Amino acid sequence: CRATRRLTISGFSVDIQAEGELYYEQFAACCRLAKATKVVTLTIPAAELGTPFNAEIERLQRLVAIAASDGVMVGVKTETGRITQDPETAVVLCDNVKGLGITLDPSHYIYGPHAGGSYDQVMKHVLNVHLRDTSKDKLQVRVGQGQVEYNRLIVQLGKHAYKRALTVNIVEVPEVDHAAEMRKMRLLLESLI
């Protein structure tokens, strides 16, 4: 599995549609795959807004326990429309679920209901980072046309001894050269690190 791509796999994003016990069985299988491929971090979506907070805590506690048995870490993704769209709530989740981390996608704190607010409080819990350029009006724009302060982000992560991957999460868009956007992002990040 690891030899199929030129890049090293730094984490898996897991979005399971099953419900009940089947959900946890499929998650456990993903953890075994992560262990077999030497991937440490699994990113999962948080519950949708309106989900009872205690139910989400219980779900996350169970997922973290399953993952820990395979030596895998779980990061809940910061995302608009989910409980983690508010950075304070994302931090409270981590404070209540021992071993839970955050997969930071700063785009959702620039574009969306939290637009322009600080999200520095999540930095101490970050396990993985998903990057793209974004503006207050659009979740993804061409690299260099957005408002993500990459230098500030890297400095903030450095203050919390973040030594993990910076993952580029650019979705292909018609009429935009995806490979060129990926190269621009790589050059940008290399210039900052």
Question: Can you describe what's shown?
Answer:
- It is a single chain.
- This protein is α/β, with parallel strands linked by helices.
- It has 6 helices and 6 strands, in the order E-H-E-H-E-H-E-H-E-H-E-H.
- The chain has helices at residues 20-36, 53-68, 87-96, 107-110, 150-159, 178-192; strands spanning 11-13, 41-45, 73-77, 100-104, 126-131, 166-168.
- Strands 1-2-3-4-5-6 form a 6-stranded parallel β-sheet.
- Helix 1 (20-36) packs parallel to helix 2 (53-68).
- The mean pLDDT is 91.
TL;DR of this structure?
By secondary structure, the chain is α/β, with parallel strands linked by helices. It is 37% helix and 14% strand.
List the helices and strands and how they pair.
Layout: E1 11-13, H1 20-36, E2 41-45, H2 53-68, E3 73-77, H3 87-96, E4 100-104, H4 107-110, E5 126-131, H5 150-159, E6 166-168, H6 178-192
Parallel strand pairs: 1-2, 2-3, 3-4, 4-5, 5-6
Helix pairs in contact: 1-2
What is the gyration radius calculated from CA atoms?
17 Å
Main beta-sheet annotation: 6 strands, parallel
Helix content: 25-40%
- Beta content comes to 5-15%
Structural class: alpha/beta
Number of strands: 6
User: CA-to-CA gap between the ends?
Assistant: 28 Å
* Stretches with pLDDT under 50, minimum 5 residues: none
The overall average pLDDT, rounded, is: 91
Biggest sheet strand line-up? 1-2-3-4-5-6
Molecular shape: globular
Secondary-structure element order, as H and E?
EHEHEHEHEHEH
Count, helices: 6
